[in-house]
Amino acid sequence: MTELRYLAPTSLDEAIGAFAKAGSAARILAGGTDLLVQMRSGVLKPGVIVDIKKIPEMTAIEHTADGGFRIGAAVSGMALSEHGNFGKVWPGVLEAVNLIGSKQVQGRASAGGNLCNGSPAGDSVPAMVAAGAIVTVQGPDGRREMKVEDVPAGPGRTNLKPGEILVSFALPPRPSGSSDAYLRMIPRTEMDIAVVGVGVSLTIKDGTVTSARVGLGAVAPTVLLVEDAAKALIGSKLDDAALAKAAAACSAACRPIDDKRGTIAYRTKVAGVLLKRTAAIAAQRAQGK
Amino acid sequence: MAKVHVTTSINGEPMEFLCEPSDTMLDALRGPLALTGSKEGCASGDCGACSITLDDRLICSCLMLAVEAQDHEIRTIEGMAHGEKLHPLQRKFLEMAALQCGICTSGMLMASDALLKKNPEPSEEEVRFWLAGNLCRCTGYDKIVRAVMETAAEMRAQ
Fold first, then answer.
1. Chain A window 168-187: which residues touch B at a Cβ cutoff of 8 Å?
2. Beta carbons of A103 and B4 less than 8 Å apart
3. Which of A208, A274, B27, B105 has the fewest other C-beta atoms within 10 Å?
4. In B, which residues are within 8 Å of A191 by CB distance?
5. pLDDT tens, residue by residue, B113-156
6. Measured between alpha carbons, how far is A162 from A151 in angstroms, rounded to an integer?
7. Residues of chain A with CATH 3.30.465.10
8. What are chain B's domains?
9. Which residues of chain B have a CB within 8 Å of the CB of A76?
């Protein structure tokens, strides 16, 4: 870890200039809970660290004009949980963010870092995918928006272009009768990495699902948007047949690896089981139960 | 490489130190600042022995760069007691033997203090979940959890 330069720009333009100039030697620092571990273990030896937390937009939680939320990429999980209203509107996104590491880690770790770290098992990502979050990224060529599910490219890789920085997540306004949930399977009760993670967002009108999105994590090289599962739920009253069809769609979407946390067969089965449980929690919340 | 000059606040006192850009806050605390109450267990954010607060938020000092302390407020275990008067958590940990070797203790105390500031009446389950990021290899946790619960009850009664 020699010859490291630390920069803490106060504007996004300044950060982008510094980040682009330093090229592949540069790393973005948000909460640092992945970056510092990677530096310590010698996996990464950055020449420049660009700390984005002094840029107001990166740490802001705002209501947008259309009734949604905009969350800065470096907002910590603890800051999000301390926000008065966010968890009421997006309980699933919040519970996913609050499953990342310990309370100490949540004091620093951000949804932006979780996404850009590129782990297929990042807990906040399936919930953000289910929420239909749109991310803003900015680089030397300007600003653009991406669907959150289009950001991961594979384990440890994203589709951000060289020099681009993730700026914020925009979550859409919620019609009445909407809610979300996130569940993950881990072999212990706390402080572990997902074997499978499922995020479900639903809108329910008169007992019938009018819109749904399903995000699935830890079962493929990237977190997945499972459109077939959502299709099986939309128009249903979440009856057993619809849930079974959606669960089968989740299992069918799985392309997992065998590792010490879970086998291919186990992950594939659990993806379906978790879909049913997560949809039930989202539905209860959506109907105010 | 030139060291970086950092101006910060530690336990309510203005403080300055010099560090390498790659030093962690824990390196700075245990090195130039000579505040060795925060311990290094794992150096990867798993064990919580280095727990401090940054602007009143509980964090692992091994996962923060020392240069990030510039213009922020740090609190460490050294700021917990008022002179000779121990914080109720410290006193209760001693009374109830909620420690053995002591390596995890300052982190346990910092984390427990952060919990009780947020939630003065935690359930046992809430205490156990909150302290999930603080590892203890001696006590089996039970005495620690009981000491936190008893302290919370005592502080509520005052």
1. none
2. no
3. A208
4. 46, 132-133
5. 999 999 999 999 999 999 999 999 999 999 999 999 999 999 99
6. 13
7. 5-119+134-171
8. 4-79 (3.10.20.30), 88-157 (1.10.150.120)
9. 57
Q: Are A16 and A140 in contact (CB under 8 A)?
A: yes
DSSP notation for A38-81: HHHTTS---SEEEE-TTSGGGG-EEE-TTS-EEEETT-BHHHHH
ipTM of the complex: 0.96
Say whether B63 and A29 touch across the interface (CB within 8 A). no
CATH superfamily of A178-286: CO dehydrogenase flavoprotein, C-terminal domain (3.30.390.50)
pTM to 2 decimals?
Answer: 0.95
Record: contact A102-B48, CB cut-off 8 A: yes
In CATH, which of 3.30.470.20, 3.40.50.2300, 3.30.465.10, 1.10.240.10 is domain A5-119+134-171? Answer: 3.30.465.10
**Shortest alpha-carbon distance between residue B80 and chain A (Å):** 18
Contact A103 B114 (CB under 8 A): yes
Choose among A49, A53, A101: nearest Cβ to B133: A101
Answer left, alpha or beta for residue B14, where phi above 0 means left and psi between -120 and 50 means alpha. beta
- Between strands B73-75 and B4-10, the pairing is parallel
